[in-house]
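User: structure tokens for this one?
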Amino acid sequence: REITSDDVVAGVTPVPADADAERGGLDAACDDIRRAMREIMTRSVGVVRTEETLLDAERELQELERRTPATAWRTRQLLVARLITASARHRRESVGGHRRADYPPRRKHPV
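Assistant:
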């Protein structure tokens, strides 16, 4: 069975605000969240993207952020991931190596 975005987010356990300091504190306790964030960004916001994959990524990143304590360093990484995703969603044309599969490519030379 193919792993879905719901599986990724569902597999992340919320991190308690008083995470074990012996394991490195909150940031070490957020390793599952970091892995899930990387998987979401690679799968849904990578080189080829669509409105649907970007919307899925926004939803999943919001859920990960909800599960991450506000004082954890990972919340800044999640914010950056959400900003990248929002920016990619608003940019309809393909730019550089990134391509919107749901919009036609830009013409290099006007006709």
